[in-house]
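ok so for the tutorial part 2 we go from a plain amino acid sequence to predicted structure tokens. step 1 is just haveing the sequence, like this:
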Amino acid sequence: MKWDMLFEQKEQPTFDQIREFVNNPLWEELNSYLQGAYKVQPKLSYSKCSAQRGWNVKYQKSGKSLCTLYPMSDYFIALVVIGNKEMPDAEVLIGTCSEYTKSLFNKTQFSAGGKWLMINITDKQILQDVKRLINIRVSLP
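step 2 — the prediction. this is what the tokens look like for a chain of 141 residues:
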């Protein structure tokens, strides 16, 4: 069953239910990393956006979005927005990323103040790419 059908807007899932649905150890690894490295707590949010409808997990630090995680069956999507300030560092970093992340970065158009990267986290290398992209967002004022 699709995520947005499993938990409709009026029925907020628990973090355990999300973890069980995703059923991928990379989910727990990224959540633990974000909470430990940046001392932030996840917030559940419901999106009515047709592109990725349903409950998601947001991470913010000092009012700045680090990423939004979208549960999928056996994987998940991390939305990381690379804005004008982060773009020079991201362009240097992207050369060291996986082919998947490089390709996604290069074909994603700059709009609404940034590159809105919807990254399918399916393996450890892509997870490392996401951690490094988030770090760019945190290290710039």
